[in-house]
């Protein structure tokens, strides 16, 4: 068996366990990893949310701010449970994205598969590239050489 020890990860985990779960203490929601890219006429954002039930995900858009919030609860609980290793984070996860005016926030599509929440946000019609026709100025005559 191969074991890899990261003392800073252990320190972070212990700090979260000690201070993050005490009543009356403030703890901020953990950010979720994401990828974002443009594919043609839509903007795609994928969030990693492994182990989160689709019912525990909230998705809100207000003006140009998109908020994704989820909660993952510990899978093991009980009086007779003695945890040996606890590296998987649980609690509230949150992420806010500020969307540009070029995106159509009225038509956001969301899907959740294999622990990945994928959002597809279309580019607004007025932001899509378009050709502009150039006309001849009035009063100018075209000359044709024969």
Automatic annotation (TrEMBL):
InterPro entries: A-crystallin/Hsp20_dom, HSP20-like_chaperone, Small_HSP. Transmembrane segments: none annotated. Residues 25-137 form the SHSP domain. It comes from the Bacteria. Coiled coil: none annotated. Belongs to the small heat shock protein (HSP20) family. This is Hsp20/alpha crystallin family protein. It comes from Pseudonocardia charpentierae. The lineage of its organism: Bacteria, Bacillati, Actinomycetota, Actinomycetes, Pseudonocardiales.
